[in-house]
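From the methods appendix. Each design record in this collection lists the tokenized structure first, followed by the designed amino acid sequence. Records were kept in a plain field format so they could be parsed without special tools. The example shown here is representative of the layout used throughout.

RECORD:
FOLD TOKENS (466 positions):
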């Protein structure tokens, strides 16, 4: 995740990206439960295209670096601009196997997690050998720290985790799965980490070092596997502030959970949100402030950035597209007939989604209505049916789901760019903050995981240079 080679500085890059995002905000501005509003805003030539497109072409659409032919003019412009702004990654198809052993497996670990810890532990072991202490932020159930210990028994690992139950599980796993000596080398503490946790981390690291006969700690690394939301940003701040920390290796995730600036009057509505930690860099902030048109870097934008990547899209069958389109369309229909003091949630499905989807009774069968205030289930009323009929007159049975899937296709095409904006913004911020603190750093992203298995697959690596 970086800047495409054609751009020579982040400000110019972000300026072009912001311009593009404001032109196509109808694709991502609304949550998909409100996709009828997005479909209404879809230009007619895009609608015509998605109503007629073959499954093969639909599957190829998000791969804009590969094929420019056979698209109507406006879609061609969209794809060419995406190709110009989205860094071309070569990793998608040539995924390299990690050389490390399989991680500990005395207690069952899901396949996705096995893939992540195997590759990340191998990366840490190749890059952090000089670290006397490794601080694992958001250590969860302890999978990563335990796999790291398995690779190299010399590591001293401090795992910090906000959730008490997870800390206890991690301690138990350590006792059950690793040799007794590991309980001395790995310490799990319950701690909600923020940018001011440096003193706490220093204190607990020094204690851990002392317990293992090491009286001086000069070299530490901060690591984190899927350090969600603001945690990965605070980890970067800790890296800059703490002299002993020489490197950081962090894989971020859950951008959509970033904290809002409630203190500054921000709200969690879907149109405009002010986040504490996005945008972060001066470069992106400048571009956003200079944008003359409406721009929506809101919660749905962040959610799009952390959707599945396009890697899996290519193999989607006709039936899968039809089923997904129906589900998305019906969900949005249910959402648009409810009143603002009501909620809808899917019931257990009884039929495949693409069968007989368009009657009001089908909607009633699939979705339960609730009161927003009390959470109690409510009955659907004749007024809901009237609203349903009004709304569903706009699109036929076939058109609604196809357009919903067309919208999903546009989102899949834009996902990488949206994620790049977030990740590259962080990289720029780290460089800007390092320059301000007069710390000499080298920063990069590496794609470490197979995105078909684990879509949040980039590790931010930063090292202090002496
Ligand atoms: C997506 S999970 C990843 C867990 C673990 N690293 C793994 O890969 O198995 C993120 C973890 O970070 C923890 N977490 C989130 N924010 C945190 C914070 N500010 N301080 C400490 N832990 C936090 C969550 O409780 C959760 O266990």
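DESIGN:
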């Amino acid at each position: 995740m970086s800047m495409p080679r054609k751009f020579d500085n982040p400000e110019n890059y972000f300026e072009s990206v912001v311009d593009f995002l404001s032109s196509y905000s109808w694709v991502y501005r609304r949550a998909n439960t409100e996709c009828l509003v997005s479909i209404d805003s879809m230009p007619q030539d895009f609608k015509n295209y998605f109503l007629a497109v073959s499954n093969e072409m639909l599957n190829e659409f998000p791969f804009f670096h590969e094929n420019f032919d056979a698209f109507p003019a406006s879609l061609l412009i969209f794809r060419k601009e995406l190709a110009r702004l989205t860094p071309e990654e070569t990793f998608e198809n040539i995924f390299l196997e990690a050389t490390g052993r399989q991680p500990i497996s005395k207690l069952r670990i899901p396949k996705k997690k096995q893939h992540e810890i195997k590759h990340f532990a191998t990366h840490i072991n190749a890059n952090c050998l000089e670290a006397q202490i490794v601080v694992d932020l958001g250590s969860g159930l302890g999978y990563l720290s335990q796999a790291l210990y398995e690779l190299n028994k010399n590591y001293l690992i401090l795992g910090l985790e906000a959730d008490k139950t997870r800390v206890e599980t991690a301690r138990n796993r350590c006792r059950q799965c690793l040799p007794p000596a590991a309980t001395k080398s790995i310490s799990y503490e319950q701690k909600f980490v923020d940018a001011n946790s440096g003193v706490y981390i220093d204190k607990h690291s020094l204690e851990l070092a002392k317990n293992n006969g090491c009286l001086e700690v000069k070299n530490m690394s901060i690591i984190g596997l899927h350090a969600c939301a603001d945690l990965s940003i605070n980890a970067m701040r800790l890296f800059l502030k703490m002299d002993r920390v020489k490197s950081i290796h962090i894989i971020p995730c859950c951008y959509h959970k970033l904290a809002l600036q409630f203190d500054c009057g921000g709200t969690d509505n879907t149109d405009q949100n002010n986040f504490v930690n996005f945008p972060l860099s001066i470069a992106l902030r400048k571009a956003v402030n200079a944008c003359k048109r409406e721009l929506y870097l809101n919660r749905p934008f962040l959610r799009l950035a952390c959707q599945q990547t396009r890697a899996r899209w290519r193999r989607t069958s006709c039936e899968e597209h039809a089923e997904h389109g129906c589900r998305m369309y019906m969900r949005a229909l249910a959402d648009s007939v409810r009143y603002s003091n009501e909620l809808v949630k899917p019931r257990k499905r009884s039929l495949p989604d693409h069968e007989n989807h368009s009657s009001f009774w089908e909607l009633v069968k699939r979705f339960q209505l609730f009161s927003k205030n009390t959470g109690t289930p409510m009955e659907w009323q004749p007024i809901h049916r009237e609203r349903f009929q009004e709304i569903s007159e706009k699109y036929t049975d076939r058109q609604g789901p196809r357009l919903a899937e067309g919208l999903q296709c546009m989102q899949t095409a834009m996902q990488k760019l949206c994620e790049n904006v977030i990740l590259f913004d962080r990289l720029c911020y780290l460089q800007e903050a390092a320059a301000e603190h007069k710390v000499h750093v080298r920063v990069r992203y590496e794609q470490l995981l197979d995105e078909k298995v684990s879509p949040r697959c980039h590790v931010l690596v930063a090292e202090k240079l002496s």
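APPENDIX NOTE: The longest strand covers residues 220-228.
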